[in-house]
Structures are given as C-alpha cells and as structure tokens.
C-alpha cells in the first residue's frame, strides 16, 4: 500500500504537481490523498481537482487566532490519516501545537541553502549579499522557523545579470527534482527524524543534508 500524503499549499502548486506526477510513476511508494489551501483561489486546488484528488480551502481569515486555525487544519488533515504532510508553498507560520502533532512526518521546502536566509525574500537577499551560489533545501519541520534538520539541498549558480525572478526560476527547476525524491525516501521508510536530526538509511545526516560536500 502506498503511503498517504496530504499536501498544504497557498499558491500555484508547482511542487505539488511535481509530487503528483512522481506518484504516477511505477513503484512510487506514495499517493497524494488530499490537498489543502488557506486560499480558495490557489491554482494548486485546480491541479488537485484535475488529478481527482480531494481538495479543500480553509481560509485563515475565518478564525480569530492562529491557534484556532491550526486546530481546524489538524482536524481536516487527520481525516485523511496521512503518513506524511508536505508543505509546498504553504505561506503560514505554524503553531507549536501543529508542529508537535505531526512531528517526524512534516516536510517543507525552502528556497535557500539553509541555515542561510531563513524567512522570506531569499533570492534577493542572496543577490544583495554578493553570493555566487544559491539553492533550495528540503527539511523536516520543527518549531524553529525554517530551522528543522535538512534532508537534501540543491545548488544553483548566481550570475552577475541575475535578478530575483531569474534566480527563482532556476531554483524552481531544482525544487521539482529534489522534493519528490525526498518524499520517496520517506515513503520507502528510509528517511526519519530522530532527536531533531534527519536520518537516512540509519545514518544521521550532516547540517546541509545528504551528499553535501561541506
């Protein structure tokens, strides 16, 4: 039986699409069973509908507090009994209660080479800093924003003529490669989080994740 995956989105859902496409390939060990967005007009919901995947919009604007919203989100997610919850451009800071509820089965993708450039506007910040390379990180989610253990990173060069949009496009290509791969590792039972560390095939991964030369 494939592992059950719930994906949370806020926007176009290009990483969602990459995971949906991966799930269609032979012997892929996961299946997206539901997609949830905090925005009803998120195109990712259309992607889910087109793939005959259950989808829901739960607007955070209908709740008085972040805690109330996250409790409603937990209830909706738990209805699908997921093995894994994937954040794919879900633009909400999650409460500790939410993170604890799904601890060890909550993955996020962040457009920087963590621990550099936590938070927003990562592409412009990398350019402004004069960096020669940038990248993307898939990591487990902990209570520290963008601070959970890194599983896998992909690097891209920064060229002198780049702006944030060009750099973002280059990053997206790598995102669509590495996120389905990390999800596969998890669904295969090869990847876990133990004591705030990412563990692959029984080995604790270093700070920058798998196959990093640093």
Would you kindly provide a written description of the structure presented here, covering whatever features stand out?
The mean pLDDT is 96. 32% of the residues lie in helices and 25% in strands. The chain has helices at 14-23, 43-50, 66-78, 96-101, 122-128, 164-187; strands at 3-9, 30-37, 54-57, 84-87, 106-110, 133-140, 150-157, 191-194, 197-200, 203-204. Strand 9 (197-200) and strand 10 (203-204) form a beta hairpin. It has 214 residues and is an alpha/beta fold. The radius of gyration is 17 Å and the shape is globular. The chain has six helices and ten strands; from the N terminus they run βαβαβαβαβαββαβββ. Strands 3-2-1-4-5-6-7 form a seven-stranded mixed β-sheet, covered by helices on one side. The chain has a three-stranded antiparallel β-sheet with strand order 8-9-10. The termini are far apart. It has a single domain, classed as Formyl transferase, N-terminal domain (Rossmann fold, 3-Layer(aba) Sandwich). Helix 1 packs parallel to helix 6.
